[in-house]
Structure formats: C-alpha cells, structure tokens
Amino acid sequence: MTTREDGYFLYHSIGQYPGKEAGLSAAMAELAAVWSAPNDQQWPYLLGKRGEFIDYWRAIIDAPAGSATTCENVTQGVDMVMRALPDGLLRGRKVLVAADCFPSNHFLLTRLQERLGFELVTVRARQGANFVADEDMIAEWDRDVALCLITWVSSTTSRRSDLETLVDHGRSMGSIIGVDITQAAGLLPYSVEAPNVDFVVSTSLKWMCGTPGAGILYVHPDLIRDCRPELCGWFSQDNPFNWDIDAFEYAPDIRRFDNGTPSIMPSAASVPALKWHASADRESILRSNRHLCGILIDGADDLGLKLLTPRSEEDRGGSLMFGLASPEQAVQVLTHLRGAGFSADTRGATLRLSPGIQTSEEATREVVVELGKALAG
C-alpha cells in the first residue's frame, strides 16, 4: 500500500504540513545537541523554547502576556482550572457540559463532581439529532450553573457552537465560562476576547500540526487573581529561585498554574509547526478546506451518504462526518480507502474526513470515487 501525501484527510487528528518531518527532526537534533553539551546553557535554551511556544499560541488566540501557559493536554488544563477555583465556588451548584464534548473531558468532570461537590449536568442531543443544539444548552443554563465548559467544534460531528450567543447568556447567568477550541484551533480564527471568556484549553495537534503533550491553557487575568492551584511548586512563584520554604507566594499571573520543573520537549517539538503556521496564509487554507469540503458533500449526496455535519459553513469546523450503516461497514470502507492510499478514520459507524493544507482537489475527487466503490463492494 502506498499512502498518498495529497490524500491525507486526518486533520481532525494529526495535522501535516510541507516540511514537517525535516522541521521536527532539526528541532529535536538541536535540542539533543544543547542538552548534551558540557556547559550550563541548557536551561536558558529550553525555557526559551517553551516561551516561544507560548508566544506563538498567544498570537493564535489573541491572549495578552501573562495569561497563557503550557499543560500536557486539554483534560489536564480543565482539571488545573477547576481545582484552582475559590473554595466553595462550585460546591452545591452545577457544572454544565454538552454530551458531544470530547469524552475525556466528560470522564474528568464525572469524577470531579464528587471531589468538588458540584452536580454535573450533561445536555443531550434531541431524539434524532446529531448534535446538542445551542438552545438546549441555554434551556439548562440557569443561575445555579457555576461553570460551563463549551465545546467550540465537536469531534463527533464538526458542529460549531454559536459562542457569541452562548457566552452572552452565560454572562447574564453569572457563570464561569470555559471553551475547548481543540477541533478548530489553527483553522478558524479565534480570540479569547471575542467573545470574552474565562478560560480556554487546546492542544497543538490537529490543524495546528504539532506534537502530543503540547497543550495550552489560557486563563483570564481577572480569574487568575482568584485562583489558588492545588498543584504548585517552584515554578508557581514569581521568582522560581526562592528557596525559603516558609515564604511561598503564587506568581501574580498565569505562572501560578505552573508547578515543578516544566515539560519542555513537547513545546520544543511543536515550535516548528507553530512557526510554519504563523507564516502560512490561513485565509487561503480555510478557503481550500471549504472548497474541498464542498466537493466531499456533493459526492456524498450523490452516493446517498448521511451527512452528520451541518451543511452551512458558518455552523461547522473543518471536518465532515458521514453516517454509515454499521461499525462493520465503516471498518470495511476505511480498509478500502487505506488500500487506495487515503488516510481517514472512523468512530463507530461514523466516517471522518478532514481536508487540510496538503490535501489536493484531485485526491478529494478520487476519494469520493473510492468511497463509492467501497459502498458498492
């Protein structure tokens, strides 16, 4: 089997860009050389790479200085914020989330409700619907909701939430509002100020084309001042080199969410991708995605496939999800596509296709043809 570079439809999972292997290899070789040198220059270099990673991400989400830091992944980022909130803020109240959030977040919230004493309210999709509607979130969002975690774009349908409407309602309810932007970060424009939210979590995978373990956490400066992270350490201080064990004080900014010696390698490994992304024509990438998605939708319609993703560009991210007859058929279809050199994946009976920077129009039209062969076979 020969995998086609231009037949890559997995940007909802691992993003690719021209020169990725060379850039990543060079970055890791440089890190190895610095770390192995018999001198004292390792930490200035490594912490500089972490700072570079954070600065690239701040530009992506329009975050001010001192408001973003690293985390291992989205789930950890959510946990860091929720455990740092003032004592009693969540206890006896509700935390709201949609059922089509990333499952890992729901697993976490289910466990945290006992630990932090809140009631987890999971809004389900209506009967026959593919995703949770914004109006159903709002219907459950009353003044007892202390915190709501919004999924900007769903990983199961690529449905895009109306952030402006949801955040406006949440503000009127006095809730803390967090947003998981993972499935659209790097493709769709995003700003933590429009609308203004309390915290944001994401990963450097998917459209960002980075590596695992390179998560990002943004916390609004007003909320930072009220937070006392449970997990703290020498990097939680304004001066990490304070060794007085009786004089610990949290840093005044996002650094209070740091703890022990920070993990550097995921950040350093992702810097080449973030650097490429910063120089890329993002409007052109989005236009191409929309064009290729249009070809896929038209082709799927001709094949009689059920589109689980909203048709309107304004209501979806960059992925398309199609419902097949069964998980078994999905496996058969995916096996056929892989045999023809195309990269995609499935979740149960759902086929997921995400065209990105390296995906060509020729490959997009051909994958429709191969999809038809697989369904007919």
Automatic annotation (TrEMBL):
One of its GO terms (cellular component) is cytoplasm. Keywords: Hydrolase, Pyridine nucleotide biosynthesis, Pyridoxal phosphate. GO terms for biological process: anthranilate metabolic process; L-tryptophan catabolic process to kynurenine; NAD+ biosynthetic process. Its EC number is 3.7.1.3. It comes from the Bacteria. Pfam families: Aminotran_5. It is an enzyme of class 3 (hydrolase). The keyword Hydrolase applies. Residues 71-322 form the Aminotransferase class V domain. One of its GO terms (molecular function) is kynureninase activity. InterPro entries: Aminotrans_V_dom (IPR000192), Kynureninase (IPR010111), PyrdxlP-dep_Trfase (IPR015424), PyrdxlP-dep_Trfase_major (IPR015421), PyrdxlP-dep_Trfase_small (IPR015422). This is Kynureninase. The lineage of its organism: Bacteria, Pseudomonadati, Pseudomonadota, Alphaproteobacteria, Hyphomicrobiales.
